[in-house]
Amino acid sequence: MALFGLPGVHVPHRKNTADSETVLMPPPETVVIPVVMHIGAPAKPTVKAGEVVAVGQPIAEADGFISAPVHATVSGKVQKVEDIVLSNGSSAPAVFIRSDGEMRRWEGLTPPTVETLDDLAKAIRDSGIVGLGGAGFPTSVKFTIKDIERAEYLLINAAECEPYITSDTRTMLDDTGLLVRGIELLKKLLLPKKVIFGIERNKPKAISKLKQAFAGGEGVTVKTLPSMYPQGGEKVLIYNTTGRVVPQGKLPLDVGVVIINVTTLAAIQSYIETGMPLVSKVVTVDGSAVAKPMNVRVPIGTPLADVFEFCGGFKSEPFKVLYGGPMMGTTVPNLDVPILKNTNAILAFDVHDSIAPEETPCLRCGSCVGRCPMRLNPPAIAKAYSQKDFDALGKLKVDLCMECGVCAYVCPANQQMVQRHKLAKAELRTYKQAKEAKN
Ligand code: SF4
Ligand code: SF4
Known about the structure:
- This protein is α/β, with parallel strands linked by helices.
- Among the domains are: about 115-275, Rossmann fold (3-Layer(aba) Sandwich), CATH 3.40.50.11540; about 365-439, no CATH class.
- The chain contains 13 helices and 17 strands.
- The protein has helices spanning about 115-125, 140, 165-175, 175-190, 205-215, 235-240, 260-275, 305-310, 365-370, 380-385, 390-395, 405-410, 415-439, and strands at about 25, 30-35, 45, 50-55, 60, 70, 75-85, 90-100, 155, 195-200, 220-225, 255-260, 280-285, 295-300, 320-325, 330, 345-350.
- The longest helix has 22 residues, at about 415-439.
- The radius of gyration is 22 Å and the shape is globular.
- It binds iron/sulfur cluster (2 copies).
């Protein structure tokens, strides 16, 4: 039985910046680079205050299998290494670098030699690349999974289904050559039977450019999909492009799929060709409070305040500022927080677009159940969570919730499901760990 299907929801696209060519932002006065911008163990800082660094130089080393190194994103002097509070409320060391404005490349940069899958995994690890579609999972881990040669499908996630965000679209339009060469390399190393680009049909220019670029490419399909949020959810995209269901607790590779975000693919190929690790990001800057919405290439670690200023500042008082899109993005506490490796958009909204309507009692209308792409039952989860019934939460498979926000979007009672599900998942994890420790 499929654990999820196709429902989802039509959301306003608001891809206002799709045609705005990416503008290169000059280095800010200071970058603040956290050592944890990924899922897994924080990297360990390797520089101290007073050291002079150049762009691409390692400043923190990966600490464990699921971790990623961090590199200087501007040239200049390390001011300090100090804990900062991240947007999720946790704290972690960050390297503060005062830019000298020169953007000098580090002399130690050399393109890697990639002839085998092991070479590829090592190169990706050295590059510091993490899932750039939002998750931030260290990408090298995907290429070190046992039996990766089983992959029948190489699936490129180009759906970009969140409203407003167009940074992946810009990658497809501006870096098509990197994508073509990246696919050639992955085809040679992984030997998949099929390569599929999964892309929503609201990106006609990117679709046409990809189709043209891969016209002679054997085994590469550009699959146009309905613009139906959350088309880019990993399991949703796998199902909608291959018909395969990733069972609970299993990986895409268990159903023969390796899936990678389109901008991540371009970043990998860029590193292989230049030796320059992940030091900058294309970020969509938009929202009702932003004076000049646009796409900008920004050094990682640039404070949000500098990025908004570069985009003409605010035309109205920003009331709510998000990392990411309006469906899955997270609110930032202030504008001092930096652009992270997996930041694909920053959105600032005025008060009219920021106040959530008041939550009222559930009407039992069933809309959320019918629209959930994972076939979950939010009202039942709410009941189990209010009773702290963790066995029931387990049976209701709350841990399958991908926090897409579709249920909350369609709810006429304005129920705050996503926050509740995040808490329920965290508490269920703790409950299971405590239970295992007892046994
Ligand atoms: S947030 Fe979770 S429960 Fe709600 S629609 Fe998405 S997957 Fe389903
Ligand atoms: S959509 Fe809202 S009101 Fe309707 S059943 Fe779900 S939680 Fe209740």
